Each structure stands twice: as C-alpha cells, then as structure tokens.
Amino acid sequence: MFLKKRRKRLPLKTVFYMSFLFFIVIPILIVLVAALIILNQQFKKQAIENIKRAQEAIIADLESDEDTMSMRLSHMIYTNNNEILRYAAETDTNDPSTRNEYENKLSQTVNLVLEPVKDIISVSFYMKDGKKTYVLNEITRSQEEIKQTKWYQAALEKKNTVCIGYFDTASTNDVYRGSKKDSLILVFALAPDVMTDRSQKVEMVMYYQTTGAAERIRSYNKGYLAGKNKLGIIQIKDADGAVVFSTQEDSDFSSDQYICIKSPVKFNNAQWYVESYIKSYELTSDFWDTAMLVLGAAILILLLAGYYSSYLLRSIVRPIEEISGGLRQVEEGNLEVHISPKGQFEIRTMIHQFNAMVRRLKVLVYEYEEKIKSVEKTPEDYFAAMIRGEMLPEEINKRSKEFFMESYSILGIYVEQHNTKEKETDYVSRLVSGFERNPRFASRCILYMESASLFLVFYRITEKDYSHKIITMAEELRRMGNQEIGVQLMVCIGQKKFGFGEFEAQIKEIRDKMCLHHVRGNNAILNLEQEKEKLDRMIELSKTYEKMAGVLYTADEKNLTQEKERMFELFNGASMEEIRLQVYACILALGIRFQEDNLNLSDVFGQQYNYVEKIDRIDDLRSMKLWVTNYFAWVKDYTASKLNVSKTDVIVRAKRYIADHYEEADLSLTRVAEYVGLNEKYFTNRFTKECGETFSTYVTELRIQKSKELLKSTSFKVYEIAEMVGYYNVEHFNRMFKKINGISPAQYRKSE
Q: Is 543 part of a structural domain of the chain?
C-alpha cells in the first residue's frame, strides 16, 4: 500500500522515464538477448548437424565398401567348389613351371570373377609356409608387417569371417606400385578353415581396395582450408586412438580452441571413429553475421523508440508537468504564474486556458481583497474575538457569511523554548514570521497567539485529501521552528468541522489536548481524526492519578508505596494496551502537577521523551512493573533533592524527615516537631488534619511497608528486618505487622 501511494506521488517526468525504461527498453533488451542466445544455440546446433551429415556420408562409403567387398570376397572363395583356393594352393610349390601354370589359371579365374570391379588394387594369397601370390598388383609391404596387424590376427581367430584392415599411404608407391599419396587402402581379409581349403596351405586371402571415403575426406578438408565449408578437419581413428586416415601432417588439435565432433563406424572386427576438428568460433561464425543484423535492427528500433519518447516528452509530458507545477503554485497562493505555450495543439490550448484562468482568478482575488478591506473587521479579528469571548460564533456568522463558508479544522501549536536565548517577544515574532512564509499556512490559516507557548490556528479545508497536506504542513512548521529558531513544536490537529455550531467545542478540545505534550513530547503531531478516542481516555484517566502525582511531587515515601500498589492491582487481569494507557495517564498527571508550579517534567531526566514510544516497546507485565518502579524512584529522588517544596510546606518536610529516619527506634513526635520548628501540640493537630491519620499511625505503616519490601526481596531473618525498620523488640514488630496485614511476617514471606 505504501509503495502504491508513493508511486502515485511520483512526478510525471519520472513516471514517463520509468515507463519507457521498464516497458520498452528493458523488454526489447531482454527479447534481444534471449533471441541472440537462442540463435547462437541454433546456429551452433545446425553447424554440428552439418558436420554430422558429412561424417554420415563418409561412414556410408565405408560401410558400403565393407558390405560389397565382404560379399565379393566370400563369393570368390566359394565359387566353383573353392576352385580359386585350389589354384592358389597349387602355386605353393618350388617347381617354377607348375607355379607359373597355376598362377596363370588363378589370374584368369580371379579376373573373371572381378571383371566388373575397377577399385580393387590387389588380390593376395598368403601361404602358411611364408609364400605369397598376388593377382593384379603386387603389395610392397612386407609379409611380416602385414601379419603383425590387428586385423590380420583377428581374421586368423575368426575363420571364414571377413575382417577389415587399412593402410594410409604416406607417399607414392607406398602400398603398391602406382599408389598415390594420402590414399586410404582398405584391406578385406579372410582365413579359410579346413572345410574351405582342404589343402590347408592357404593361410589368408585378402582384397586391397581404394575407398571413395578418402576422396570425400580430402575434398571436405580442402574445402574447409579454402574457407568453402564449416566442416573442420576430418580424419579417421581406430578405437585405440591411432590415426587410420588423415590428410594433415603433424596436426595438433589438442588446443582448447578446437572442438572435436565424432561418429562411430562399426565393422566385424573393429570400431573406427570419423572425427572432425573445428575451431569453436567457426561453429558460430555465421551466427555473428546474423547477430549483427539483429543488433542493427534492435538499435534502429531503440533509436526510433527514443525519438518517439523524446517527442512525447517534448510535446506532451513536459508541458503537462509545467501545467501541474503552475497549478501547484496557484494552490499555494501564487497568482503570478504564466506558462509559455508549447507542445501539441491540445496542450497549447490547455496552457492558454490555464493562463486565462489564473488572470481571472487574480482579478477575483483582488476584488475579494477590496471587499474585505471595506468590511469592519478582518477574519483575523473575528477569530481572535471568538477565542477571547468578545463575540459569539453565531454573531460572526451573521456579520461575515464567508468565515464559516468552508469546512475547517482547529490546530493547536504548543511551543517549548529549549535552544534559544532570545527574548520571548523576539523569538515569538520570528516564529510567526516563519509560519507565514509557509505557502499553505499563509493561504489557508488564521493565527491567534493565546500565549508565548500556545498558538491556535483556524485552517480552511479546500481539498478532499486535506489530512495528508495538513500533516505535511505541520511537519514543515515543526522543522522550521527547530532549525531556524531553536524551539520545539507539538501540533494538535482537530477534526474536520463545518459551520459555527461546534467552533467553541473545538477550541476547548484543542486547549485540553495541549497537556499531552507531557506524554507525547514537545516535537509530536497529534491527529484527532485518528486518535481522539484514545487521547480522551488518557486525559480522563489522568484525573484518577492526581493523588499519585502529588505523592511523587512531594516525595511522600509512605503514600507512594500505597498508591503504587493500588496501581499495580489495576494491572492484574488487564490487557497490555489498557496497562500502557494507565501508565500514560499517570505520567500525564505528573506532568500537569509539575506544570502547576511552572516546572517541567523533562527537567527530571534532562530531556523530553516521547513516553508512548518508550512504553509501547514493553510487552509483558513484569517488565512494565519494573519500569514503573524505576521511573517513580527516579522522580521521587529528584523531587526530594532538587525541588524546594519542603522549605515552605512543614508537613512535607516532616514526611521527608520521617522517610530518612524511620529505621531509628528513637524517632518520636517531639523530635520531628522540633525539626520542623513547631510546637508539639500544634504540629500533631496539623499533621493529623492534613494527612488524615495520626503521626504514630503514619510512622508505623511506613515501617511495616518497608519491612514487607525487605521480606519480599531479601533473605534476612525476621528479627534482623525488625531492627532495620526501627523495632528492637521483635515480638512488638510481629504484633504490629499482624495487626496491619492480618498475618505474621513469616506467613507473609511464605505467601510471596
């Protein structure tokens, strides 16, 4: 609720800037940032998908080669009842003519089988005794090197199963004569078992084949290096991380700037990985081109929005703000306002109308002032006459209808001088001048100074939300008085009234409420619209504490204890709110008692307190009783030592002497009478008359009260307490205690 009210009071320009910021700039920036983040992720995802598709094409080539060559190799071996294997086995001989004959047959048969195939480089037959036979091209790699490869060993373990291997040609003629550099040679190997090769001479049959996957990788890498694609450097590795095929020599992709994207390809005997290495920023390089366009568009939109907002500000907001400021000045009584027309046509028309209205109002005010001058008395004179009782409100209503024409509220201003050494007339004159400098006070208020410490104010109410504005005015007056003049002001704001019927009652109520500065402090603002019931109850209750105030003021030890006990009895069973109200009322009564002798309760503590704030912080009965006890003790000590009541009041002097010597057993009527300088008979008659009890009864009850406090708060023995309160005979003490309290001291201690 507070924030809502605060927003309603913000200036128009501030609201405009905040609205533009929160409803245009920030949403555009949020959408822009979110869009860029999403676009970044989309572009990165698309780039990775493109790389994955390129890898899938390479994998498709490899898997196609494996399927095709496995089928061809199996077909070649099993055709015509393993005819090719029989020819190959016959080449394993030392007879040159026989070997030559079967090599020719083998070559013719293999060529016949492979007639439509152009990408097979060589068909190799490796014998168990170390001999080898090649068809098409002779392989330049040594037989020992080939037999040590993993794929060769895998084929030996998995008889009649095609296993795949590879050679990456590092140079020309690396695998066979005529092989190119950077070619991937796939090897398909099959080890026949005894059922396939009955001669048991052939250990391994292998196809050597070039693959289109190598050409595809070479093409992709060349395009990447030339900046024609964003596929990165592609290479193939096996499961152990060894490079199967790469077109780059000594490439180091371990740097953090590279991202590796890989896809697996599975064979009968191995698993390879097609890997693409690409720099991180290249994945989103296309994004930045788009981002620049989006940023440019966003900047353009913001510029247009800024231009539009500046147009609104220049043509509508600022002119309206000036009109609002002008209205505020007129409200405060300044009719010299003139606003230069600016902004849109409708706004300029409004400004012209405003200026015309101010001129007309100025004329009306002038006519009204002239009319007032022609009247016998001014409103100030009428207000003063009613307060002094020289004229009745009904009479003034007949003479000047304008006085009670509007609703009004009576204000009381209590002035406490605390910081100024000026003469009373000087600071009062400066204070009134300060009041009149306040625009709202000057335009709505009539002031009457009842005394140097009390001003009564007639406030004309002309607006609906007057309560907030009158409180604001009171705060400004209070601040001015404190800072400029060095006085504290308590302002009491009366209820809203209309007509002359309740005028006198309002004046009386405000006067009655001025005493509340003893409780609320000299720097408070009381609003009777909100607090009247509570404040009335506080003042009414204070009358019941007049005796308590008199006892504290005279430091009457015996009666103070009795009054405090009565007060604490009222606390029992009461709510904390009611208890606090009782304490407020007691302090108010004490402040009024001090004021009767032109003294100030604040002198007791050296400063003025807002007792409502202090007491409202006490939440439990025990703490409240402790606070009240300490407060009373402090006031009693002050009045006993600082005030001069005892010098003029004989009975008060006597009571204080008794309070200081009650523990002495030889305290007597004669001794006290001599102390105060009176005849014993005259003193005892006067004491009994003024106190309502005899001297002996007063002393006895004081001693018993003190003994009760010791019984409750100490662990002394009964006879020790008896001596402490002036009884050297414990039996006599016990009799007197029981006579007054109905129980013995020991029983009293147990009951507590």
A: no
Residue recorded with tokens 């590795």: 237
Q: How many CA atoms lie within 13 A of 632 on its CB side?
A: 28
Report pLDDT digits (tens) over 143-153.
Answer: 888 888 888 98
- Band (pLDDT 50/70/90 cuts) for residue 646 is very low
Between CA 535 and CA 533 the distance in angstroms is 6
Candidates 383, 377, 327; CA nearest to 350 is 327
Estimate to the nearest angstrom the gap between the alpha carbon of 298 and the chain centroid.
31
Residue 466, classed as helix, strand or coil, is helix
| Same domain membership, residue 191 and residue 314 | no
Residue type, 640: A
Q: Which of 459, 493, 523 is the last residue of a domain?
A: 523
CA dist 514 and 195 (Å) reads 126
pLDDT of residue 491: 93
Sheet holding 120-127, edge to edge: 132-135, 120-127, 202-210, 184-190, 163-168
Average pLDDT, stretch 646-668? 79
| Half-sphere CA count of 8, side-chain side, radius 13 A | 5
Tokens matching residue 602: 């604040």
Instruction: Give Dmax over CA atoms of the chain in angstroms.
Output: 174
Q: Which residue has the higher pLDDT, 313 or 379?
A: 379
- 324 shares a domain with 270: no
Task: Give the number of domains in the chain.
Answer: 5
Residue 421: the pLDDT is 60
Band (pLDDT 50/70/90 cuts) for residue 1 is very low
> Are residues 386 and 440 part of one domain?
yes
* Assigned token pair, 20: 């533009």
Answer yes or no: is pLDDT of 410 > 90: yes
For residue 113, is pLDDT > 70?
yes
In this structure, are 289 and 277 located in the same domain? no
Closest CA to 327 of 355, 360, 367, 347: 355
Residues 514 and 414 in one domain: yes
Q: What is the CATH number of the domain that holds 706?
A: 1.10.10.60
Task: Count how many residues are written for the chain.
Answer: 752
CA distances from 130 to 110, 158, 201 (A): 21, 20, 10
Question: Does residue 548 lie within any of the structural domains?
Answer: no
Report how far Cα 527 is from the mean position of its chain's Cα atoms: 33
**What's the number of CA atoms in the CB half-sphere (13 Å) around residue 378?**
9
State whether 60 and 159 are in the same domain: yes
Full domain range(s) for residue 507: 375-523
Q: Is residue 581 part of a domain?
A: no
Q: Is residue 295 part of a domain?
A: yes
Of 352, 368, 384, at which residue does a domain stop? 368
- AA identity, residue 641: S
